[in-house]
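I hope you will forgive my troubling you with a question about protein structure. Here, with my thanks, is the record as I have it:
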Amino acid sequence: MKKLIYIFGLFIFLSGCSDVLDIENIDSYSPDAVWNDENLANAYMANLYPMFGNWDSGADRLSQQLARIEWYPDRVTISNENFKSWDYSRIRLINQAIIDVKNGTLPQEVKDGITGQALFMRAYAYFNMVKYHGGVPYITIPQDRYEDDLNAPRNSTEECFDFIEEDLDSAIELLPQHIVPASGDYGKIDGNFALAFKAKVLLYKASPQFNPSQPWNNPYWQEANAVNKEAYESLLGQGYGLVEDYSDIALEERNKEVVFSVINTYPNKTAAWDHGVRPGSESRGAASACPTWQFVKEFPMKDGRLYNDPLSAYTMSDEEFLQNYWKNRDPRFDKSVVWNGKLYEVSGKTGKRQYTALGIAHELDDFGINPNANINSSNLNRYTGFFILKNSLLHLTQAEVQQYDLDFVLMRFAEVMLNYAETANETGDSGTALAILKQIRERAGIEPGVDGNYGITASNREEVREAILAERNIEFCFEGHRFWDLRRLRLLDRLDGTIKEGVEAIAIEPDQSEMEIGKARELADNYELVEEDFKYSTLQVPRSGVQQSTLPENYYFFPVQKDVLDRNPELEQNVGWGGSFDPTLH
């Protein structure tokens, strides 16, 4: 195999590793040098960690949670690059580490740590590919494009899951079980993250996406439940748990709920979260992620029931709810969403209220078509009258918004809990599932009710399944889970054919007549208008272009890109995309 030269950018993935990565003139070196020098070996591994991503304010645009129609006709085709995951460049680098670290002169403890991280990374990368496409070629040796035969056929989906589990089991044996927050290694993969991720992999393996003919009673659910139970009990026993305040999940870094996070530290590494979620007047441009009216309605009331549930203490008609949607809601709504008239003390502005009404709000914040405003909004195709509050650093000024450096929480204990609740329910233990749901809702601040059920009425397997899915929708809002949850449960029909809407606010007088715009603007400038000083109506968004989501049946597995197939005659295309490869487990 040709001698490979690796080019590294100097990448700081956590502040505690500065002693490792502050090396003079690191820009290129050979594999022989890397694996005989602990600093270079750790720098090599650090350059692989970007695979875990970072904050993405628009992650849930794929679902009903955020505005924009992402699923237009032919969003995914065989020829385009959309929703393709074929990450063999990274796989080669990971395989190189696994092979070459064995031959180096590093201490065995260091070798084990690097090998454990690399095995986890390989499993993580392959799982994402399998999630997209089903079985893929599971390559475990570094391939040289000049000398090796790269035309490998696809492994079956079942074989890929077996290999992923094997890699994760090997990683768990080699990794430290728990890297504590005070450790200089915090931010590296540990055994707890590997175990929790293995549990998630097995949840997917059992799910309807991979078992369409036997979605709920296949044998994989028992294995998934055993590992999810192990992950839950193991992490709980080590002190993991739910933080007291839902707002603190990310704002309080390195807390007991964080299972794994990507470390951000200004100025070395920042993320674009606040830049994407803030109203334009408090950011460096228009917001790129705005919650929809459809999602606003899905938050329960504070007794845990939906607004239109006649058994709710806060039940309202659709029209009543539109005019009072912010009242008596699940506290997570207040901690996640900004709406017109809400107290929103961003950029250190005491007493500031956020407005979205046309003619009253800043031009980078407004949403609406009120003809009496005598101006047109430029935001009708991107805004909804709502913004995201969750995980925002309100103390950052407008000039500082691009300095956002909260650690990105990739996995938290609430996910471990709800993954376990799901597998428990599907294996006959609805009691455990309901107990976990109640814990999640208790932390959220929902009223327990006289029965102590926090508004949960589910009493059988199917109803508990729906309750878990609904809870995930709220608990993990804007974290990028919703589309993938619906896809693995084969429920994309809940998105297919749907529209998205926003809410326009128009200022009114006490007698319900419309307030003169100049007067309303003057009051708003002093933050004197509150939610009740407006009337509300819905508007479809976007106002032009594609306005309805289209998700055909074959989106449960995406195709292998034609360019990849053309370069490897051994590959088969997926069933449903003109090929014969079955991406399911049977």
